[in-house]
Write a structure and sequence with these properties.
Layout: H1 5-20, H2 22-34, H3 47-51, H4 54-66, H5 70-93, H6 98-122, H7 128-208, H8 216-244, E1 253-256, H9 257-274, E2 278-282, E3 288-291, H10 293-310, E4 315-325, E5 328-337, H11 349-367, H12 383-387, H13 394-407, E6 411-416, E7 422-429
Parallel strand pairs: 2-4
Antiparallel strand pairs: 1-3, 4-5, 5-7, 6-7
Helix pairs in contact: 1-4, 1-7, 2-6, 4-5, 5-7, 6-7, 7-8, 8-13, 9-10, 10-13
């Protein structure tokens, strides 16, 4: 009978033997796994990592063999199960496939069974029931171990799958938001085009009308301005389309950012004077950087023309400077206007919040003494709201600025307040090591 005293004594002696041989069993198990050509993941593990929770599982097995009361057996069984579950979790974290973990259990079962058989041969006087109990307990141990490990894998796979679903859903929402933004941008562009074409049509009608000689000059000037506006808008749309299609590439080379910006400001000074505005260029005499000078000028052009377009009194400052944050060399372009700023209750509020959030994060990074190597330009949440400041297609211009900043690994930040003007700040890297050798 399994509950007779001689059998209990014999099982206790067997448990003590297994405890003394535990290190040898684990070593034989690892050697057997190493010889299995289908098990390769374990090759990069240390012995402690390989053994993981299996020593505790074997210890619980030994307790179970010598347990007297059913409660003791149940406690030992639960400890076996817990150890097997934790082993399955760790194997997942170590990069195992489920099949590899199950094959390892098979090798463990074989090595433990060999130890039982060697013990039986060394003790021929043992009651056959002792080894029968031990073998059944070992089969149950390994069976439960495989089930527990598989259950851990299943839970982790379900968790990972749910996480992937959430990530895909989030990515889908972002794509849908981008599509809505793009549709709104093109809707605004179509609205601007229709308005400009309407002006051209009316001007052409006036020129063709009889008795229009007196107003022909002013009508011709209006027609010319409208054609120029239409050409600029179409050019912006083409540029934006190329950027969104990924057809623009950056071509980096050393250049003097100060000279480039100062010269461009001089070219636009007559426009500022015509609008009775000041235009000041402020910064060091030279600023040697690496980058795409053409695209930097396009960013400055869009920001500066936008600032001049919305400012009625005062003027615009264009500033540039170099800085170093946590060993990262950067340079800044700032365009400050004395225009109306963004109204918090206007349709521009989503754009303002998006850019100011990016600005606040950048300032926090500076305060912590760190800076991201390539901060992305923030997403412009509503292009139509920007166009509300200026009917001349400003939303398209800022969309172009955003895309160019992404292409140049630059960040775009906004500081604004109603009635206090607006500051756009672009932070460029001073060099692009990944572009060298192209």
């Amino acid at each position: 009978m399994p509950d007779s005293t001689p059998i209990k004594v014999a099982l206790a002696a067997l448990a003590q033997h297994l405890a003394a041989r535990r290190a040898a069993i684990l070593a034989a198990w690892q050697h057997s796994v190493e010889l299995d050509p289908e098990l390769t993941t374990s090759g990069g593990l240390s012995r402690a990592q390989f053994n993981d929770h299996i020593p505790q599982v074997l210890e619980a097995f030994e307790w179970r063999l010598q347990a007297v009361h059913p409660l003791e057996k149940q406690i030992a069984f639960e400890q076996q199960k817990q150890g097997a579950e934790e082993h399955g979790l760790h194997r997942w974290q170590q990069g195992y496939h489920q099949r590899e973990t199950i094959r390892e259990w098979a090798h463990l079962h074989y090595c433990a069974l060999c130890e039982l058989e060697d013990y039986a041969q060394a003790h021929p006087e043992l009651d056959a029931e002792v080894m029968s109990i031990a073998r059944r307990a070992l089969v149950r141990l390994c069976g439960e171990g495989v089930c527990a490990s598989a259950a851990s894998y299943e839970r982790l796979q379900q968790t990972e799958a749910a996480s992937r679903v959430r990530e895909l859903e989030g990515a889908l929402r972002q794509v849908q938001a981008l599509e809505r933004q793009r549709a709104e941008t093109w809707r605004e562009a179509a609205h601007d085009l229709r308005g400009t074409v309407g002006v051209i049509s009316n001007a052409a009608t006036l020129l063709a009308a009889d008795g229009a000689e007196a107003s022909r000059s002013s009508t011709s000037q209006l027609l010319q301005r409208s054609v120029e506006s239409l050409r600029a808008l179409l050019s912006d749309l083409i540029d934006l389309g190329r950027l969104e299609a990924g057809q623009e590439q950056r071509h980096t080379a050393p250049f003097d950012a100060a000279a480039l910006l100062r010269e461009y400001c001089e070219n636009l000074r007559p426009l500022a004077t015509q609008r009775n505005l000041f235009l000041k260029a402020e910064g060091p005499q030279t600023l040697a950087v690496e980058g795409d000078a053409v695209k930097v000028q396009r960013i400055a052009q869009n920001l500066l023309l936008n600032a001049l377009g919305v400012t009625e009194r005062g003027g615009v400052r264009v500033q540039w400077a170099a800085r170093t944050v946590s060993g990262v060399h950067q340079w800044l372009l700032c365009v400050l206007d004395t225009g109306p700023g963004f109204q918090h209750d206007s349709p521009a509020a989503p754009l303002e919040r998006a850019l100011q959030h990016a600005t606040a994060e950048a300032h926090e990074a500076e305060d912590r003494g760190s800076a991201p190597s390539a901060p992305p330009a923030p997403t412009l949440r509503s292009q139509s709201s920007v166009a509300a400041r200026n009917a001349g297609g400003e939303g398209i211009g800022l969309s172009i600025v955003k895309r160019l900043c992404e292409l140049l690994d630059a960040s775009l930040e906004l500081e604004t307040a109603p009635g206090e003007g607006t500051t756009f700040r672009v932070v460029f890297p001073c060099e692009y090591p990944q572009d060298r050798g192209r």
